[in-house]
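Re-running the complex after MR caught last week's input typo. The corrected sequence lines follow. Everything else is unchanged.
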Amino acid sequence: MADLIRCRRGIVLGTLAPLLTLVLAGCSGITGGEVQSANELAGDNARSIWNLFVPIFWLSVVIFVLVQGALIYAVIKFRAKEGDPIPAQLHGNTKVEVAWTIAPAIILAVILVPTITTIASLAEEPDDPYVVDVVGHQWWWEFEYEDEGFKTGNVMHIPVDQPVEVRMTASDVIHSFYAPNLFGKQDLIPGRTTHIYFTAEETGEFYGQCYEFCGVQHANMHFRIMVHEQDEFDEWIASQQEGAIEPEPDTIEAEGKEVFFQQGAACHACHAIDGAVAEDGTEAVAEVGPNLTNLGDRPILGAGSLENTPENLRDWIRDPHESKPGNEMPAFSESQISDEDLDALVAYLSSLR
Amino acid sequence: MAQAVAANEEQMDRWAVIWDWITTSDHKKIGLLYFWTSMAFFFVGGFLALGVRSQLAVPNSTMLSPEVYNQFFTMHALVMIFLALMPMSAAFFNYIIPLQIGARDVAFPRLNSFSYWVYLFGGLLLCSGFLFGAAPDIGWTGYATLSSAQYTPGQSGDFYVMGLQVLGISTLAAGLNFFVTILNMRAPGMSLMRMPMFVWMSLITFVLIMLAFPSLTIALFALMMDRNFDTVFFSPTDGSVVMWQHLFWIFGHPEVYILILPSFGIISEVLPTFSRKPLFGYSFVVFSGIAIGFLGFGVWVHHMFTVGLGPIPNMVFSSVTMLIAIPTGVKILNWLATLWGGSIRLTTAMLFAVAFVGMFTIGGISGVMHAAVPIDYWQHDTYFVVAHLHYVLFGGTMFGLIAGIYYWFPKMYGRYMSEGLGRIHFWLTLIGFNLTFFPMHFLGVDGMPRRIYTYPSDYGYELWNMVATIGAYVLGLGMALMVFNLIKSIRSGAPAPADAWDGRTIEWTTTSPPAKHNFDHIPQIRARDDFWDEKYNRKEEKDKPADEHIHLPPGSYIPLLLSFGLLLMGAGVIFTLWLSLIGGIVTTVALFAWAFEPND
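Corrected-run output:
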């Protein structure tokens, strides 16, 4: 076996490469800092998770370096050479064994203490939280503001610096609610209620999506969380309670509202628009799909399948399966909604804020 | 005329050979059947993985439809776990365990043959979903309520249930068979604490199989009833949705150790052989293995930390999960100490065994990270977990199995595998593997969920997904090279002597490949690493007369028939229950035939 190719350098490179990338990952911009990153912190809940992770990460780096270092050193140092005698047949050493059984036990105990306390603190219900109810559907999110008496879809609004309780369940299959900047995830389970407690520390728009595989369109089950200053949030609540904006008569938006209720489109068969009433007195109160009362205000369509622009909304209504194949909304051909009517409908829906 | 007769005879021979393989109860032949079948399924699983990686190479990809993508990632997991890794371990159980314990065959040779055929038929049943456009697409975990008839109508869910149910029978039968074999059929003098470490780790595996698989059987049975006969086991209103997860993971977590322990055993053979030293701390390695097996039944909730079971269960299961890192760490340090002070020969088998220690350590470390529950609230169901599980199952299990292939191939075929090709295979694999899976940690930090068929372009996921995809193709190339090496070496590899590597255990005392009866005389075991002891320490006479009476089990076609009956019963639940009836009749007849088959 003396003719085996020498591959020391290869071993060093092959094992050092992941090591270096790992260290770099900890220090710089190889990872993190993106819209959905777990280290881009804007909530107390996410912060306590990251604060637990960082020391464990560096401890891991130390262990990683020691083990890989010893491994590489051993392979290089004890490589067989021509004429080597048979090495001492060492069967073990009880003292050494006991030592390296106790050492990891101590390390793990050190990790376990902050783990336990963080589990407890994350599960603790804050005093007087602001409650938002979340229901997971295939494949969109329903947000209910029960005390305020309205619902909305796919975009959740909350006040900054105010403890929030997200109270969750699912209508069909299991989903999981997670906005990495703000809080750790919890599953939404049919027939059960789960909770997340967190306080947003910054205003802005935060990204999240479903993290438990929930069927064909699991990938397009995004949501956004809008964090507002308290007064701005109160305004938003008030405007939602007023219901949808009623279009001026004889505008394209007014025409669009008629299309909404018209046979052929019949959007109200699935969607609600609070306060919108057709000429014949029909109300839009269905809850099969997301509530559209403030659709024009949302940054996303189809739970994040598309950016919310009039063109995308048009394409979405014509064929929702183009961007989100398998979703429940039917396509609407020209015989159901003419191009003109569709323009009006899009204008109306985009005006709802 | 004479030519025609010769051709006819040749054809007869071919049929005789095929019949011999079909009815064989020789553990070595069954081992090879397991090996090549699992290798074929490994490439099916690999192809599916490349489909997944190709789809995710770029954002907003439309290469695969979401329906097909979901079938791909689900089947990738099912094929790799149930049809590639476990059966490849079984190939070594079959071929190597009787040789290492000095037995002529396993305890129940026909049951062994039965296990193989049920595995093959169950695998084909599971994969045949693709032929009907209805391969399982609910994730390998098959969570309720997504797996119900309401949310997964059609046959895909039934292929999942019945495919796994049939495969579970194969695994249970094999687990029982080898458990009894190891306990009852060891050569005289081989006390438990003289057993080779591969046999020890396998023994623990069989205990885990016998205790864990029934939970899966029950879960699948309940799901079958829910899907086909309107029961409500997993209904949110009348049953419990979370019950499925408990039943599944009470099986599913020990399953992880069922997958990794055989590889622990393999590298515990390879490292000492090529260091020319005994395994350091033999009894600590044994007892840490037992501890892992025991604790493995007390950690299943760490797959369910985000279910909302409450802070107390999460604290308890977090603690036990961290506890399991202690025996695992002990093992890693013992492997290091085995290398220390040795005389190391870096054969391909050794390279993979050494790389196993390095890669498995990474998987172990990331495992401790998400054992800390709050960190799991982040990492659960992100690509961080995908990275972790592949460091354990590929960097761990598969690297160990590949080490086993290069190590025992000379015993199986009487030829060495090419070391030159092996080396290239190793470097392609190590580099491709790390290129594929290390960046997934980064994607996990950036919050990329697993099991998504597409991702938007403004989330910062592009770079590392592209790197991972390139890595996957490098890895695929490495694996293809391994098969090329296998086939080339079977035909033209350098001939290997009985003791191909200056081995330590008794499988190296018999010819390569071994005779049908394994050993001319049943060995008398005097020490741990008995063969090494005999070569270097004992000076007594080695040649002993061959045993006069050698009992070998006869072949039988009944295991195949019985397996076929089970296949029909499973397929009947998917297609039409009449098929189950026919299958039931075939199974019953075969069982009676089995019981009354004359035993020479």
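None of the earlier attempt is carried over here. Chain A touches chain B through 104 residues (CB under 8 Å). Confidence is low (pLDDT under 50) at residues 1-9 of chain A.
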